[in-house]
Amino acid sequence: MNYLWAFLVGGGICVVGQLLIDYTKLSPARVLTGYVVTGVVLSAVGWYKPLAELAGAGASVPLLGFGHLLAQGVMKAVDEMGLPGIFTGGICAAAGGITASLVFALLAALLGKSKDQS
Asked: What is the pTM assigned to this prediction?
């Protein structure tokens, strides 16, 4: 049942994004940014955690999950160190994922073969 919920919720998130790209004048970058902001807002009002518990990776892997991760990091850092936590919490929480994406991008660039774009 977990796989079904992950598929339905993750797929639903992707469908909404694709519909926004196809039927509005929003650029993909704006849709992605909107998803991150939506994840932060849903986390702030307490609605994202129940969704993530229901859908698992279907809710935590998409960009909404990244927004939730940033919001949780900021809330934790503010609890621990006060106002400076606003500036450091999100980056500290997402440092592992950001580092992994940079390392794997570097490996792909080193191991892959580039082709002429023309």
From this structure: 0.76
